[in-house]
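>> Question from a student workshop board

For tomorrow's exercise we were told to take the sequence and the ligand below, predict the bound structure, and bring the output to class. My setup keeps failing. Could a helper post the expected result so I can at least see what it should look like? The ligand is adenosine-5'-triphosphate.
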Amino acid sequence: MLLEVNKLNLWYGNRHILKDISFSVDSGEILCIVGESGSGKSSILLSIMGLLPKGSRIEGSIKFKGEELLGLSEDQYRKIRGRHISIVFQEPSAYLDPLFKIGTQVEEAYIAHFGKSGAKEKALQALKDAGIKNAETVYRMYPHHLSGGMKQRVCIAIATVCDPDLILADEPTTALDVSIQGKILSLFKHIRDKGKAIILVTHDFGVVAEVADRVLVLKDGCIVEQKDVYSIFDHPEHPYTKELLSSL
Ligand SMILES: Nc1ncnc2c1ncn2[C@@H]1O[C@H](COP(=O)(O)OP(=O)(O)OP(=O)(O)O)[C@@H](O)[C@H]1O
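>> Workshop helper replied:
Here is what the output should look like for this input. Compare the format with yours to find the bug.
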């Protein structure tokens, strides 16, 4: 298994946010974490990335390629983030820096781990792999020149430029026009087909139907159901899963 999460518990102050969360993800699969707003979906991703806010307390185990991530220093985490595990957020505009050209931002992600040599070629290739046909032109543009969908493709290029094995995505299509949501989801499936593992957080069972191999249903910080995608649609067991499905 690429990632194994075991009995993860998280508190913000004295609020118990994640309760005994256990799951795993392997290369070449998309795990969707689905649940209502506030159920703790984003907190799972932030726990994996080592990006929890001050005042949080975490217990349990998160093993990546057999190595324990919990308890790593900030320096050790920085070597993993972007290089081995990366994340795509909901709002590409909030993530991209308006003052820097697209090419610079994709290159930076590469340079942080591999140095300057070959960075431009890698950045252009990552933009092309993210479905940007006129990569040379986009490379010289600023974020405000691009549509929401194109900006999200750039964020995916940043997340993949170092060829990490695990990509986390937090509601990556929620802020986008419906017309391009499907294209971005296809891109994630393409990345999965190249052997990467993806954990995609969503509140939308339509997205689950589109991309998931396996599904984890989260309610109030607890996993209520965990199944392959066909079983979840054909035989949902938990009343909460049925309720979420009925809203589809
Ligand atoms: N920095 C923080 N400090 C304190 N509480 C927080 C913090 N971040 C999130 N929470 C609380 O933790 C709970 C889980 O939040 P989280 O963002 O993980 O849920 P979510 O399922 O991703 O929701 P959403 O879909 O709205 O992003 C919520 O009750 C939220 O209010």
